Amino acid sequence: MAVSVTEQMEVAERIEDFYILCVYEQYSMKKHVQFLQKEFNQSKIIELPEVHHTFHAKSFVVWAKTYEQNEALFYNIRMQARKETVMEIAKALVAYHFEEHPTLEKKLKNPAILDETMHELQQLIQQTTFLSDKRWLTFYYDFKNQVKDWVIVKLLDHVSIEELRQMNDTDLNYLFFDFFSQQLAEKGEFMQVMTDATNAYLEKWLEEILCELKKTNQLPKILHHLQDEKTKMGEFTAQFTVENHLFVMNNLPYQLVREAIYKKNFEHHIGSPYPTAIVLKGNTEGRFEINPFVRDHALQYAWEQVGKISDIDVDVFDALCNVFLSRKRQPNELIKVTITDLLHYRGLKPKRSGDGRRGGYDHKQKIQIMQSLCNIQSIHMSLTKLLSFEKGTPQYTTLKGRTFLFKDALGQDFALSPHEPVKEIYFSLDEAFAHYLTGAGRQVALQHMKALHYHPTQQLHEKRLSRYLSWRWRTQARKADYLAPNAIRTLLDSIGIPMNERLPSRTRERLEKALDQLEADGVIQSWQYEKWDESIAEFKGWAKIWLETGIIIEPPVAILKQYATIERKTTKKVEKKKTLKEVRQQRNYSLLQLAEELQLSISELGEMERGLRPLTKKVQNWLE
Question: How much is the pTM?
Answer without folding.
Answer: 0.56
